[in-house]
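Worked example (supplementary).
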Amino acid sequence: MQELDLAQMELRAMNAALQSQETGSNLRFEILNPRGAHAVAVGLDAPIEVTVRGSTGYYSAGMNQQATVRVDGSAGPGVAENMMSGKVVIEGDASQYAGATAHGGLLVIKGNASSRCGISMKGIDIVVHGNIGHMSAFMAQAGNLVVLGDAGDALGDSLYEAQIFVRGAVKSLGADCVEKEMRPEHLETLARLLAEAEADAKPEEFRRYGSARQLYNFDIDNAGAY
Amino acid sequence: MCGIVGLFLKDKSLEPELGAMLTEMLVVMSDRGPDSAGIAVYRGADDGQVKITLQSPDPASGFDGLAERLGAQVTQIDTHAIVSCAPGEAAAMRDRIRAMPELRVMSQGDAIEIYKEVGLPRSVAERFDIPALQGSHGIGHTRMATESAVTTLGAHPFSTGADQCLVHNGSLSNHNDLRRRLAKRGVTVETENDTEVAAAYLTWRMNEGDNLGAALEAGIEDLDGFYTFVVGTKTGFGVLRDPIACKPAVLAETEQFVAFGSEYRALVNLPGIDNARVWEPEPATVYFWEH
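After joint prediction of all chains, the assembly is encoded as:
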């Protein structure tokens, strides 16, 4: 375990130290005194384990590959944005657009996520133990968004092929997002994600939402609207 | 972008530290807005005096002999001056000030003082010795200008009614229309700035009988655009975000205070923050506290 103290070192030096780890190095790091700093533990590309002791600001763990980053606090806007692989766990809440545009990996938020969670997600799996805000999974293309609590307005607006699972109430569905039947393969996916996300919930308690696929092609009957 | 901080003290023992805490919070937000900075502080509400905060672009001549010219006590601090008078004299004092075009009124009220200038938070706070100010609550703003020019008058906070002030992160899209609608009701807005229209709107609502919470509720319907507002009154402190809520906001509450920051890092030095309830205010939801 190596300690990196942001009260003692510059943010760039701390990120450079994490980014310079070789693939397969399997090292553990602890970041002290983040004090809401931006861009903590970004651009990592090695199977290292990083624990941040405190809350972070914008874009923490962005562009992550392979690494496991745990924030022992809350995260500001854009946590794990554009993640490619690896795992990011937020013990507290996450601010808006958590996991935006991310292609892979697993993002776990133990508290609540605010608006636009998983916006334009492209393959990431996101598990939120609490609630999510409005416009979550907007234009989501691939991956799974699992919510143990409630979802805000316009869930899954203009959705492509991402799957959404919600255990609580959905305030409203966005354009072209509909409830779909839960088949055995979905329950299997859910069981795996809940276990990986340290979430105490049963797959059978969730409802599944997805794209009605009505926005994929232009409907000639709507020509008069243009 | 803009940076907002606010502090509403519940514990009177913290009142001597208000200016120092607000300054430190605002300086952390400097990179959210380099154009101008301002702070509103509420203090001395019960001393029986009305305070009028004035600003002069040329304080050497603007404030020269001002105490004699106004027949009031004047305390000058750099480009600003606080005029103190009995409540019954306030209207006459405003008439005299209006006849002095080199002076601009920043605020008026029993408790409010506003200090704002072009520049970074650190320099503005030092010019006006903000860290030495004690008080019951205060609001700070550092501005990245979008809707009007980088001037002292375009700086936040804006005050359009006695002991009221408002700061804003965002931009309003219906401020010209709202400015015309307010003018028909006799409410004048001094500058081209969108935020001042929002402040004047809330003042108008409160003059119509709303409390701060009800005025903010009405604002959700009538104000169009992006906004995170923090509002102060003589005894109150309010927060409102628009329904889209893309302008950041963090609230923290302990038994000693309620604090607002555009980002969490503005709050990290507050006493007991590690055990505070910290949350992101919900969209289109009014939060307000009263003493």
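Two points are worth noting when inspecting this output. The mean pLDDT of chain A is 96. The interface with chain B takes residues 35-37, 55, 57-58, 74, 76-77, 93, 95-96, 114-115, 133-134 of chain A (CB under 8 Å).
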